[in-house]
Amino acid sequence: MPNMMLGPIRVDGSYAGEQLTRQMGIEIIRCEPGLVVGTMPVSGNRQPLGILHGGANAVFAETLGSVAAFLHAGPGGNAVGVDLSCTHHRWVSSGTVTGVCRPLDERQTTASYEIVLTDDLGHRTCTARLTCAVRRGARRPGLRPAADPPHRLAPSRRTEHR
Fold first, then answer.
1. Is the separation of the CB atoms in 82 and 62 below 8 Å?
2. Residues 29, 63: contact at Cβ < 8 Å?
3. 71 SS3 class
4. Which amino acids are annotated catalytic?
5. Cβ–Cβ < 8 Å for 118, 52
């Protein structure tokens, strides 16, 4: 099976058929630094009462936030979710849910995002917050790579007392 993409993330072809995002019908429709937008159908993601499952909201929110964190990590970087919180405001029984993810804080080793989910009428249905651990990729101008040792004073110029 050929490689598939989830926003900027290449999915290994041997796992493409096992992607939860594919099984849930999640699509990334806009993907840029500072903004990730996606959609998810209610159909196929219901709980026994016929409404959208809260766990589906969580998967959708974490997907959007993780894509945003991968963008922040840059080429060769990586990100993984470490904390997810979802507040469900109202149920959805049909149609499509749209998610908008924006950064709350992006740093060298962590990034936090707010993900707002709305129904077809634009009503907020869920607000989520995701925090990710981030390993930055390619070196950015003005920043020292983690492998570089910090600058040290020559022994003759040390200021500590012995």
1. no
2. no
3. helix
4. 62
5. no
